[in-house]
Fold:
Amino acid sequence: MLKEPSPHQYQFETITLDELVPDDHLVRQIDAAIDFEFIREAVAHLYCPDNGRPAIDPVRLIKMMLLGYLFGVPSERRLVKEIQVNVAYRWFLRMGLTEKVPDASTLSQNRIRRFNNSDVFQQIFDHVVLQALGQGMANGRVLYTDSTHLKADANPCKAVNELRPEGVSEYFTQLNDAVEADRKKREKKPLPTARKTPKNDAVKNTKVSPTDPESGFMHRDNKPKGFFYLDHRTVDGKHGIIMDTHVTPGNVHDSQPFIGRLERQVERFGLEPVAVGVDAGYFTAALCHLTQDMGIALVPGYRRPHKGQNEFQKKHFRYDESRDVYVFPADELLIYSTTDRNGYQHYRSDPTVCQRCEQRGQCTQNNKAQKTITRHVWEASKEQANALRLTKWGKKIYARRKETVERSFADAKQHHGHRYARFHGLSKVQMQCLLAATAQNMKKMALLALLYGLYAWLKASLEGQKVVISEPKGQMRRLWKNIAIATCGRYKRKNPPEKVGFVSSLISFS
Structure:
C-alpha cells in the first residue's frame, strides 16, 4: 500500500560541505590547479587599512565574478541566486551552507566603484598566465593572434554623425623614418617638414552611437553591420592558453594594436616567440617588417590580390633587385621615380616606348601612355613572409591557427557570453574580456592538469615504478576522459612533461 512520504527536508544530518561536491566537478579541478591568494595582495591598495566597516573578502568577490563568466551566468542577480542553492559554488567560495551570500548590489558596486578604472583585472589575468607558464602549460614559442567582434548594447539604426579626430596609424613614426631614409638614399629631396608629424586638428565625419559613444561602427565584408567592439586575442600554440586580450572599437583595423600588444607580452612574461600565426588581415608590409625586426617570423594567411582593369597585373612584372627596376614581359624597364608619403616607391615606364607598344591597351589606360607600378619600402619583408608561408614549416604553423585562437573564440562565444558586450564603455568591456579570458584559462589549466597527471601516471607505469593512488578509482577514471584532448587539441610530444600542480597530491612515486 502507499505511504505518505516523510519530510526529509527537516531531518537533521551530520555532513560536511566537501562531501556534497562531486569529485569530478570543475570547481574542484580549478581549486586544485590554481592559487587565488594573490588577489588579496593585488587589491590591497584599493581598501582602507584602518578605517570603515570590515570588507567582504576580495578573493571571494573576484571568485564570484569569475564563476559568472566560467559558467555563462550573465546577470549578477541571477549569479547570487545560483550561489545560494549551489553547494559546489559555496565550496569554491569557502562559504558555509547557512552563510549569507553577498548581495548583488555589493558585487556590482564594488565592480563599479572600487575596481573600475584600475588594473586589478589585468593583474589577475597576468598572474594566471604566469601560473600557466610556471607549470609548463604554455611556453610562448608560437603565438596566434586574431580578433572577434562583440555586439555593443546600441541600436545601429540610432546614430549621429560627429566630427572626431582622424585616426593615425600606430606605425606612423617608423614609416616616416623609413620614407626619409629611402629618399635620402636615392638623393631625393626630403618631404616638407610640416607633414612629418600627423595633424592634431584633422577630423572626419564619424557615425557615433548616442547610447555607447565609445563603440565603433563596423562595416566589413561578410561581417554584420552595426556598433561593435573588437577583442584582439593572442593564444599560445602549445595548449591554447590565452596570453593577451585587448579591446578596441569595432572600426579599428586588426593590424593597428598588434605590435604594441606583442611587445607587451614579450616584456611582461619574458617570452621568446619564434613565430606568430595570423590571418590575411594582418598581412601588411608594416607588420611583416616590424615583426622581423623583433626576430619573430610572421606566418600570414593567403590574401587574394585585387584584380584591376588591365590585363597585365603587377604579378606579370619581375622586380630586378640588382638594378632596382621592374622588367616588363617584353623586356622593357620601369625605372624608379619617387617615394611618396605612404611609403610607396613609384616605378614608371618610358612614355615613348609605351606609345609604340602593341600591348599598351592591355597594360595601361593612362592618358600619358605611361605604366606605373608601386612597391612599398618594406616590400622585401612582405615577400619574405609570403615565402615563409609557402614552406612546409609555415603551412604546419598556420594549420594550428584554427585549433588555437579560432577554437578559443568559439568556446568564449558558446559558453562564456562573448557574443555581446555586457557594459557600456571601452574600459568596462575590457574588464569583461579579461574576466572571460581568465575564466577560460582557469578551465584550460584544470583540464591540462588532469592530462598532465595521466602523462605522469603512464610514464611511471612504463618505467616500472610503483604508483600509489591517493584518491578513489573514480579520480583515475576522470583522467582517461577525452575532455582535455577535445578542448586542448591533439598535441604530440615525445617526452611527456613531469608532474605539475596538484598531480603531486594525486600520484606519488616510490
Observations:
- The first strand starts at residue 142 and ends at 151.
- Residues 194-199, 469-510 have pLDDT under 50 and may be disordered.
- DSSP finds 20 helices and 15 strands in the chain.
- The two ends are 59 Å apart (CA to CA).
